[in-house]
Amino acid sequence: MRATAHGSTVGNGGVRHTRGRRRRATVAAIAIFALVAIFVVRLVDIQVVQAATLNSDAVGKRSISTTIYGDRGDIVDTNGKVLAGTVLRYDITAVPRFAQEGYSTTDARGVKRTYSLEQSAQQIAAATGAKTQTILTALTANKTSLYAKLVGAVDVDAYDRIEKLGISWIYPVRTTARTYPDGAVAGNLTGFVGTDGDGQYGLEQEYDSCLAGENGSETYERGADGVKLPGSSVTTKKAVDGGTVQTTIDSDLQFQMQQDLDEQVKAIGATSGSVVVMKASDASLLAVADSGSVDPNNRNANKGLNLSSRAFQSSYEPGSTFKAMTAATAIDLGVASPASQEIVADTRRFSWGGMIGDAEAHPVEHLTLAGILADSSNVGISLIGEKVSKQQRYEYMLKFGLGKTSEVKFPGETVGQLRAPSDWDSQTDINSMFGQGVGASAIQVASIYQTLANGGVRMPVKLVKGCVASDGTVTDVPSAKGTRVVSEKAADDVVDMLENTIPEGTLKGMAPISGYNVSAKTGTAQIADAPGGGYGSDYIISVAGIAPAENPQYVVLVTFNKPTTLKTSFAAAPAFREIMSQVLETYRVKPSTTAPTDLPDTW
Fold first, then answer.
1. Where do the Penicillin-binding protein dimerisation domain residues begin and end (predicted)?
2. d(C-alpha 198, C-alpha 403), whole Å
């Protein structure tokens, strides 16, 4: 019994020990499980719940977003030669936080060299052409900053010099700059861009939406030293380059026209001048030159010079160049012909008290309409013009392109000055027949002669052929549809009559252009700038011409403002002759093979 009892006691103790160990193991397991669960929950929270936020924070500390520039498109001439283009430039930027101790380099022999911050600034300045103090200021203004722009828009050579320095905390950023390879050539037409890269003046402004590129973006990661990690760049938005504006301008001809014009402005003491060269068949502008044109590369140094085109933007009283339009209107309406006969005195008085006179005193003459145009008689053209009502003449003026901007829609382009007939007084009614009391731009006057040269069909004036986008699509293509203004006979009659101007009219004494029949008309208009709005002693002189007369291909208009050495239209003759000769030679126009039309001037 004792033995049995003893064995029973031992057995119960073993059970208690076993249960205790199991309980401790269970508690430990529960504790471990709880600890693991805490880690798992925390891991899930970090990797799932907070993943986006934490990733964003981490990337924000090491990932940098930069702009990828879409290059601004080119403006080119009719042959594709660049008038305005975009060149590669670099902004030199740095990480000031890592620049304060300078930098070290190791050469090919393993020799290490260390340069102080001041020495580094000197090297950067020497490489870029900047001032050492400017570089130092940028690097020390905020010594803990991760970004500072040291020099803006350096060229490729400067970029190469910076790269050779091997400074770890400097990184160039690609950018662009606008350039005008031919300087002032067509500067009056291209305009320029502002500091923000937007177009200002001229075609840069008018076609800004075509030319402007669309910027993209990329991100890259930087290391602990703030330097970009190689191969870490990722494009987040692709940049798109701007389109190309294709003009009708011949840059070589434009250059020559500007040279000739500036020389003649100086020779006759004029304040300014313009030249328009237009193709007769489609009204394409091959040259639009203005004296003293701005160089868009250095416009701030051109104070006092014209920043855009007077040929488009300035309105003036054209004077006698309008007489060709008055004659064409009368012929088209059937009330006149080249042989129309008029008795012409040198002055004419009207019952309402007004008076007009010819430029020079002369005895009473028996002139045909051809003679009236050749002699440029104000009295004679008034006798022809009054056969047409003022409402009819006004409507023809509108059809010839007056009173509105040309189809070019050049920025700041003038509509001229053309009031409705109901607002004309008796003097304006008469004066408008010979180009006074109304205003027009040089482009509008050239368009009148293009219409006559093109058999009476006015074509939309063209300065731009179109905009070619980077993907090859073409927009802004001008209309090629003409509008008949006068009959072909009326236009041809006027062109034939204007052949008399050089041999026996107001350009008598100007040497003919050898081998070519040329139709021309002079203009001398007083400038309305006297006190009270009257006419002063200054003039605008001009010559408009068509060649070859029997097969018109080109129209040339030269205009000079306020000449001092000679105030008659003949002062414009040398420039007209030189320019028309160059146009015919440049485009290798075949000489005339028919005799000049010699219509009777008198009866």
1. 68-228
2. 30
